[in-house]
Amino acid sequence: MPTPILMPALSPTMTEGKLAKWIKKEGDAVKSGDVLAEIETDKATMEVEAVDEGTLGRIVVPAGAENVAVNAPIAYLLNEGESASALDAIGKAAPAVAPKPAPAAPAAAAPAPAAAAPAAAPQTAPAAPAPAAAAPAKDGQRLFASPLARRLAAEANLDLARIPGSGPHGRIVKSDIESAKASGVAAAPAAAPAAAAPAPRPAAAAPAAPPTPLPTEGFTELPLSTMRKVIARRLMESKQTIPHFYLTVEAEIDALLALRTQLNAKAPEGVKLSVNDLVIKACGMALARVPRANAIWGGDKILLNKTCDVSVAVALDDGLITPVIRSADKKGLAAISTEMKALADRAKAGKLLPEEYSGGAFSLSNLGMFGIKEFAAVINPPQGSILAVGKGEQRAVVKGGALAVATMMSCTISCDHRVIDGAIGAQFLDQIKKLLEDPITMML
């Protein structure tokens, strides 16, 4: 049976995407690691690699198709020994697109019944097989396996969580299943009985009044990119569901600026530390000192991050993205600076890999280079906090009972009150302030 090639989820927030370009064409031989297509995700335009070998038998989603749902078949791969006639049973299914919400029905004049009847299940095209189910989690991480590997594992009753992957980015492929079958060490445990399906929810009430119509004159319409749609959805979700609270401190950074000048004078060629590089280091070390702040909301639990990762906001032409500096507390300033520059360059070119912008419990947003004195940032769910850094500017301060001039920088942290209480947030922000004001301690 031909193997479906599914629309991949190339970021944790991706539910749909645009198939920008096919690299392979029907009839081309494909081997593991070959680039098949380019997908425009909510974060970047990325290449999709093959995880199985065979011949590209049929493309069912053409280049340029938008709103293609994650896990929808986009093409079919003929396995070794299969002919094109094997595709006849599949048919020519229409590209699967993410469903759009139906317009709200007008309110009925008659009283509503006590309980709404469940909505009829949408019909699916019989020609297209259902996408393969996701593999079980391994240590809280998502497992990646090709559709063919999933099918072979199910047929052989093998547990994918116990099979190491040798494909691109650790993906489990056909050869891994064959090795596991030969060794006999990955037998799956007996499946638990299926849980009862939840009762259907009552239909949502129609709005009391129609929305205010949009203006039709004096405006130029800009189509929403995939990234802009996701930014709008996730930030609205953040403000509506996360109880934000805010804390602000002023850090004196004259010592930090002096240290930066000294380090840049002695730095190797190609390395030039920015103020933001030192702030990243300070945030990583503060997370290590206050581990309770290095957390995310898990619904029915709080999850503590085992590493002190700092997601750093990078502005793009049509949005922003937050590549992650992993274990920032353990890296030297030169390493942080070099890595951050490389991540920012790849972000602006749309070439970041999912693992480079996923994870972490804390973000940093710095608008000081734009002259912004102070601001409060919106938490990036499911993270627990985000630090907003303003510009450093000379201000009058009191030292030893006398007026003096110092370079001050505002730092405002937004915290999820479900995860971080006020005292924890204050301790975390205080550690950041201490490290910024005594930066030599970051060198120890």
From TrEMBL:
CDD domains: lipoyl_domain. Its EC number is 2.3.1.12. Pfam families: 2-oxoacid_dh, Biotin_lipoyl, E3_binding. Residues 144-181 form the Peripheral subunit-binding (PSBD) domain. GO terms for molecular function: dihydrolipoyllysine-residue acetyltransferase activity. One of its GO terms (biological process) is pyruvate decarboxylation to acetyl-CoA. Residues 2-78 form the Lipoyl-binding domain. It catalyses: N(6)-[(R)-dihydrolipoyl]-L-lysyl-[protein] + acetyl-CoA = N(6)-[(R)-S(8)-acetyldihydrolipoyl]-L-lysyl-[protein] + CoA. Its cofactor is (R)-lipoate. Residues 201-220 are annotated as: Disordered. Binds 1 lipoyl cofactor covalently. GO terms for cellular component: pyruvate dehydrogenase complex. Forms a 24-polypeptide structural core with octahedral symmetry. Belongs to the 2-oxoacid dehydrogenase family. This is Acetyltransferase component of pyruvate dehydrogenase complex. The lineage of its organism: Bacteria, Pseudomonadati, Pseudomonadota, Alphaproteobacteria, Rhodospirillales.
